[in-house]
Amino acid sequence: DGDATAVGVAAAARAGDPVAVASFERAAQALAAGIAATATLVEIDIAVIGGGVAGAGDLLFAPLRTALRRYATLSFVQGLTVVPAVMGNDAGLVGAAAAALATTARPLADPLSR
């Protein structure tokens, strides 16, 4: 029906639309290349995929894991885990906040103590 959102393309792919299926395969390949390159540079153990596209489930994650095996040439990248975000669209924000808090030299002031 022309719905180009992640949800719409996923529905079309589940209904067997070959163009929609191919779009997830292409997206998975590009994402795998980016994840493998990032993991090589910063040695991450897990890649969390959020946003609307993560809701596609195995339509994205099956070809993503397959492509990642091709791109992951270093041993520490080969063990990388790729999972959907549990917190949905806010996962990146929560992760960034947690990382910022973890690197803060001193605890944040209690806003209720004023």
Describe this structure in words.
It contains 5 helices and 2 strands, in the order ααβααβα. The termini are far apart. The model has no long low-confidence stretch (mean pLDDT 85). 57% of the residues lie in helices and 7% in strands. It has 114 residues and is mainly alpha-helical. It has helices at residues 6-14, 18-42, 58-71, 75-78, 91-103, and strands at 46-49, 81-84. A two-stranded parallel sheet has the order 1-2. α1 (6-14) packs across α2 and α2 crosses α3. The longest helix is centred in the N-terminal third of the chain and has 25 residues, at 18-42. The chain has a single domain, classed as Nucleotidyltransferase, domain 5 (2-Layer Sandwich).
CATH fold field value:
Nucleotidyltransferase, domain 5
Percent of residues in helices? 55-70%
Helix count, DSSP H or I runs of 4 or more residues? 5
Classification by helices and strands: mainly alpha
Please give the alpha-carbon distance between the first and last residues. Answer: 55 Å
Poorly predicted ranges (pLDDT <50, ≥5 residues)? Answer: none
Give a quick account of the main beta sheet: strands, pairing sense, barrel closure. Answer: 2 strands, parallel
- As laid out across the biggest beta sheet, the strand order is 1-2
The topology string of helices and strands comes to HHEHHEH
Quick overview of this protein structure:
Helices cover 57% and strands 7% of the residues.
Give keywords.
Nucleotidyltransferase, domain 5; two-stranded parallel sheet; 5 helices; 2 strands; flat
